[in-house]
From TrEMBL, chain A:
Its main location: nucleus. This is ubiquitinyl hydrolase 1. Residues 159-492 form the USP domain. PROSITE patterns: USP_2 (PS00973), USP_3 (PS50235), ZF_UBP (PS50271). It comes from Bemisia tabaci. Signal peptide: none annotated. One of its GO terms (molecular function) is cysteine-type deubiquitinase activity. Keywords: Hydrolase, Metal-binding, Nucleus, Protease, Thiol protease, Transcription, Transcription regulation, Ubl conjugation pathway, Zinc, Zinc-finger. Belongs to the peptidase C19 family. UBP8 subfamily.
UniProtKB/TrEMBL annotation, chain B:
This is Enhancer of yellow 2 transcription factor. Pfam families: EnY2. Involved in mRNA export coupled transcription activation by association with both the TREX-2 and the SAGA complexes. The transcription regulatory histone acetylation (HAT) complex SAGA is a multiprotein complex that activates transcription by remodeling chromatin and mediating histone acetylation and deubiquitination. Within the SAGA complex, participates to a subcomplex that specifically deubiquitinates histones. The SAGA complex is recruited to specific gene promoters by activators, where it is required for transcription. GO terms for molecular function: transcription coactivator activity. One of its GO terms (biological process) is mRNA export from nucleus. Its main location: nucleus. Keywords: Activator, Chromatin regulator, mRNA transport, Nucleus, Protein transport, Transcription, Transcription regulation, Translocation, Transport. Belongs to the ENY2 family. InterPro entries: TF_ENY2 (IPR018783), TF_EnY2_sf (IPR038212). It comes from the Eukaryota. HAMAP family: ENY2_Sus1. Component of the nuclear pore complex (NPC)-associated TREX-2 complex (transcription and export complex 2). Component of the SAGA transcription coactivator-HAT complex. Within the SAGA complex, participates to a subcomplex of SAGA called the DUB module (deubiquitination module). GO terms for cellular component: DUBm complex; nuclear pore; nucleoplasm; SAGA complex; transcription export complex 2.
Length: 497, 112
């Protein structure tokens, strides 16, 4: 079938133009205003059998509504000799002389335009899935006629990274980021709109997009991150220089630059999308941001003052009392869950602070809990102690699981337990807060002379060790037995907003 | 279905406020997510290949409709039904009384 439909539709268009179709499409198929929605609600049903459904058609000649299933539109067409009708639900044209739906490019575009307007008026996001490919895309398609299938095995997605002189901290973070499933999906689907139009080389997000393209291009030669490094140096000056830096600090700085550069663009199009009150909608915040709730309870009046702060990572203490206590008492190694319990336990604040409830200075306790969990939870084990007296690396072993349930650390759960409703194990309707490990960054060596490597999960449950440009497959048990400095967990079930 | 039936009134209300289209969009989203749309596409392709180029939309529809309905996951049906029901009850003021009661008791507590 051509782009102009059948001869009957062609003749109709030549005689009457497209106004009839425009009217039907903009009022009844995709009502573009509240007035038209009312008209649709009151008029669109079969005037013979009262049917309202997806197979309702309207005559293109005289706008008579009748159903297709009961053949009432057929009767109309026969008696009036009106041979063209429009499907009210979708806007497709049916030709009774051809006995089938016919396609016409011009009318199709009118219908798509009305659909976009209708969606906008309802505040729904409209994605045009029918757009013609751009000329650049057409060229690419012609150049690559063979589809590359993604298999569960194979090395696509694994690239070594050359060390540019103590840049292993960058390499290991880049490995963790490029293997974050949701980030990968976002960046490979070209969702980023750059706002450095004059000079794209300034945009770190564009560079990350390039990096993802390189990682998943199917090549396996090591990459050199010189442009990425340069951009980090220009945007986060405190990391400039050829010295070994802290991988955690670098990770946060990178997220920060990406967040700054994504921020403006993510809010520009589709102004209708409801925004979360104080959350940015950029991809970094969508994936990495959680909310930490801090409850300060006054010991005199039990008044609670609650503050909520966003976080990108959770830094866990290893030198605290619990670590020492546990090791001496149980002879069992410290676990990640122990650290999290320590992190969210009730603690007495050293000095008296002012209570807003009873307006006096009182002893208080403070407790942290997770009000909103991020999609990717990054745990930072504080292995480097930089106090006035000592600077040392803490090598306490912490065992971390492959799967982690964050439910016990949720504010909501804490509240329920406090009220005597133990929701654990969670009942059916509550959310699934389980996470699975997908990357571990390790630090080997001492404070002054060290090296960073990363373990990453690849494809279906395969693990690889990325040591600059050396990539080797490892067993899952090796990953879980490693020391661990940064632990990256991905939420297993994503909730829709 | 007569023009004054409850079902029709609900339809007219939903259509006028645009909620009908919102639910329709949600349904579409769920069907894409659960792979239903892909399944249907595969089935349509198979039938089209079998019947050859002369096949009409109606013939395709007759074959796919029954299978397609059966393939919609129950969870999707339940979610939509639940949401539409909830919405209609809310619009009809079903929850207003409970809310009123709650605010009244809250007011009583703060008074005492």
């Amino acid at each position: 079938m051509g782009e102009t439909g059948c001869i009957h539709l062609k003749n109709f268009k030549a005689a009457k133009g497209v106004d009839h179709y425009e009217t039907i499409s903009s009022i009844f198929t995709w009502p573009t205003s509240p007035k038209y929605r009312k008209a649709k609600a009151l008029c669109c049903f079969c005037h013979i059998c009262q049917y309202r459904g997806p197979l309702l058609l309207t005559c293109l000649h005289c706008i008579h509504f009748a159903c297709f299933g009961g053949k009432h539109i057929h009767e109309h067409s026969k008696s009036k000799k009106h041979f063209l009708a429009v499907n009210v639900s979708f806007g497709n044209i049916f030709c009774f002389q051809c006995g089938d739906y016919v396609y016409d490019k011009e009318l199709f575009h009118i219908n798509q335009k009305n659909k976009a307007t209708a969606y906008k008026s309802l505040g729904l996001p409209y994605i045009n899935t029918y757009k013609d490919p751009y000329s650049t895309e057409k060229t690419l398609l012609r150049l690559n006629p063979v589809k590359k299938p993604a298999t569960n095995y194979g090395a696509v997605g694994l690239r070594g990274l050359l060390n540019l002189g103590d840049t292993c901290f960058i390499n290991s973070i880049v490995q963790a980021l490029t293997h974050t499933p949701l980030l990968r999906d976002y960046f490979l689907s070209k969702n980023h709109v750059c706002h450095f139009e004059d000079d794209r080389t300034k945009c770190l997000v564009c560079e990350i997009v390039n990096l993802f393209q390189e990682f998943y291009s199917g090549l396996d030669s090591p990459l050199i991150l010189h442009r990425f490094l340069h951009l980090i140096w220009t945007h986060a000056r405190h990391l400039a220089g050829y010295e070994q830096q802290d991988a955690h600090e670098f990770f946060i700085a990178t997220l920060n630059v990406l967040h700054q550069q994504c921020k403006d663009t993510s809010q520009a199009p589709n102004g209708d999308i409801p925004k979360n009150s104080n959350h940015c909608t950029c991809i970094i915040d969508q994936i990495f941001t959680g909310d930490l709730q801090s409850d300060v309870v006054c010991q005199a009046c039990n008044g609670v003052s609650t503050t909520v702060d966003p976080f990108w990572d959770i830094s866990l203490d290893l030198s605290g009392g619990v670590a020492v206590e546990k090791e001496t008492k149980d002879q069992k190694p410290l676990t990640l869950a122990d650290c999290l319990r320590q992190f969210t336990r009730q603690e007495h604040l050293g000095s008296k602070i002012k209570c807003n409830n009873c307006n006096s200075y009182q002893e208080s306790t403070k407790q942290l809990s997770m009000q909103k969990l991020p999609v990717v939870a990054c745990f930072h084990l504080k292995r480097f102690e930089h106090s006035k007296i000592v600077k040392k690396k803490i090598t306490t072993s912490v065992s971390f699981p492959e799967f982690l349930d964050m439910t016990p650390f949720l504010s909501e759960h804490r509240q329920a337990v406090a009220n005597g409703l133990d929701l654990y194990p969670p009942h059916l309707s509550s959310e699934d807060n389980r996470y699975s490990l997908f990357a571990v960054v390790n630090h080997i060596g001492s404070l002054d002379l060290g090296h960073y490597t990363a373990f990453i999960r690849h494809k279906k449950d395969q693990w690889f060790k990325c040591n600059d440009d050396h990539i080797t497959q490892v067993k899952k048990s090796d990953v879980l037995a490693s020391e661990g400095y940064l632990l990256f967990y991905h939420k297993r079930i994503l909730e829709y907003e | 279905m007569s023009q004054s039936s409850p079902r029709n009134t609900a339809y007219v209300d939903l259509m006028q406020t645009g909620d009908y289209d919102r639910f329709r969009e949600l349904l579409k989203k769920r069907l894409v997510e659960c792979g239903w749309c892909d399944q249907i596409q595969v089935i349509c392709r198979e039938i089209a290949r079998e019947k050859g180029p002369g096949i009409t939309a109606q013939q395709l529809m007759d074959e796919v409709a029954v299978k397609g309905r059966a393939l919609v996951p129950n969870s999707v049906k339940r979610e939509l039904l639940q949401k539409v029901k909830e919405h209609l009850l809310k619009e009809a003021g079903y929850y207003d009384n409970e809310l009123k009661k709650k605010t009244e008791t809250a007011a009583d507590e703060s008074m005492s």
